[in-house]
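Before going further, learn to read the protein records used in this course. The integers have meaning only within a learned vocabulary of local backbone shapes. The record below shows the convention in full.
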Amino acid sequence: MYPVVIYCTAIGIYCAFEARPRPKPRLWIPIGLFSYCLGVTLVYLYLRNPLFHEIAYGIEVLFYTGYCAVLQVRISRSKPSVYKDMLCLTWHAFFTFLSAFIIWNIDNVYCDRLRLIRKAAPAFIAPLFQFHALWHIGTGLGCYEAIVYQQLLRAVMLGKDHKLRVRYLLGIVPYITCASTENDRKLK
């Protein structure tokens, strides 16, 4: 189960590197990412140490967010109108991943204590101490946010972002909308 997030994050990294239209794909990117994923998987299967996987995943997420930050700087100069939406989405995804990562580590270190707290807590509070489940929810939301970011990034790189805006459902779940213009309203 653990190596799955390594492969999913590698897909996000690949999408970030290939967001710009290119006449020819760069094969070293998927080969390098697959090699990293395969290497992490093999070492993890040999060691069976969650700490190794956590560090490998953390490195991958830092690389991903770092590269996206570089892209953000470029976009801020060329497309300041969409920069604010992208920056907000980037930080939202980063802190979601970071929070999930911290919860995951707390769960690994204090698993036995958390289990005792869950047993002693009232039934309606006990789920709040299911840190492993919270890690999955946080990582899932972070992955979703990264996918939304990739959609917006690709649109920006293709020059098709002039009507796109990022909105948040309940202030948490981002989605992309197409802002209507005065001309669009007249056509309806």
Summary: The two ends are 49 Å apart (CA to CA). Residues 80-120 form the longest helix (41 residues). The longest strand covers residues 164-169.
